[in-house]
Amino acid sequence: MFDSPLSASAYEVLGVAPDVDDEALRRAYRLRLRQTHPDTGGDAAEFIRVQRAWEFVGTPEARAAYDRGRGSDAAPAPDDWHVRSTPTDTRPRARSYGHPGGWLRQRYLELIREWAGRGQDLPDPYAPEVVRAAPVELRHMLADALAEEATARTIAGLGIGFTVWHDVAVGEHPEHKLDHVVLSPSGLYGVMSADFGGEARFRRGEIIGAAVGGDAPVASLLGRMRAVARAAHVRFSGAIVVLPDDDLMQPVTHLGTVKGLPVAVVRRSVLGHLLRAGIPGTRDIGGNELFDVRTRLQQTIRFV
Question: 265 burial class (0-12, 13-18, 19+ CB within 10 angstroms)?
Fold first, then answer.
């Protein structure tokens, strides 16, 4: 719940300042419970958020741990915003090229130092108090970098039958990159990893919602895939948008065929299953064709 740079803090959910005393915090919690309770016309999801926030700061011990930046055992800690180390794993990994989330992390570090430190080095640009105070555009950068890294970890564990290229350059502007190109026996996919910071909804083959704003994520993804397909002379099987589990009402939402390609929006936790099984309606790739497609992409793809 509080593991994304775009998530509201426990104090924000309860409607108080971080330095409020314990008694005022308890009063705020009770007030927010009454305001959000479904039996009195409140929103059930918000009611759950209030209860969850109280778990983080409702006792002196839990609050002290939360304020130190560790959170509780029930959720990823704020210092998971740093690059995570990967445990030693001897199983065969997917072939992987490029640096997932690398360009966004670099831009975040450049801009956060400019914003908070006037160009000078910060002791910790990922410190929770720095991230939460940063402009929303910078928090979006970090959230999307983390999303790309999470997708990369999932794909890496799918095995040697998969090949993935991360941070693929499209045109001259790095921000127009394609997050991931994934080649598997179930097809060739363009993948976008995102964290909008709120629930995603759908209309006419596009992702909408307050958190998405005026952007058109699916249209952007398909446009970048077309550029890669033209350059490498390959055909994509489908497009996938990966979002945090809490931002989707169901594990997989099929948007149908958009501009000639099937599109699916998937919870992060079920991405591996979808890539193994393939999007319904796509054609499997195997044998000599898989080798040919991999060779074309390897010879063509550039990285940001």
Answer: buried
Per the document, the length of the chain is: 304
Question: How do 187-193 and 178-184 pair as beta strands?
Answer: antiparallel
Cα-Cα-Cα-Cα dihedral of 139, 221, 211, 247, to 10°?
A: -90
DSSP 83: P
Domain boundaries, the chain: 10-72, 82-96+154-300
Cα 43 to the center of its chain, rounded Å? 25
Residue 276, pLDDT above cutoff 90: yes
Under DSSP, the state recorded for 122 is P
- 60-79 burial, b at 16+ Cβ within 10 Å, e below that, comes to eebbebbbeeebbeebebbe
Give dist(CA 285, CA 183) in Å, integer.
Answer: 9
Contact 285, 188 (CB under 8 A): yes
Q: For the domain bounded by 10-72, which CATH number is listed?
A: 1.10.287.110
The C-alpha angle 298, 174, 231, rounded to 5 degrees, equals: 35
**pTM, 2 dp:** 0.81
| Interval 183-217: pLDDT, tens | 999 999 999 999 998 889 999 999 998 878 788 99
